[in-house]
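User: For my dataset I need records formatted as: sequence, then structure tokens, nothing else. Please produce one.
Assistant:
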Amino acid sequence: MQSSTKNICGAKTRSEKPCQTPPVKNKKRCRMHGGAYGSGGQLGNKNAFKHGYYSKASIAQRSETHKLIREYRKLCRELNEL
């Protein structure tokens, strides 16, 4: 015999009682509590991604840029000594 909680959303409402709305098909919650298509967070850690400053690609690009700047400055110093 199934328990009655399977047929309701069960999310806590503002009145701190469980939501009595039936859940969306193949979901645990109703459309208002996260059962709707497209609701919820993205897979993986994409939610933590804001600007990409600390991504591996960004760090590598900055490192290469700094390396080129150092080489340019060194070349300028050598040319000034001539």
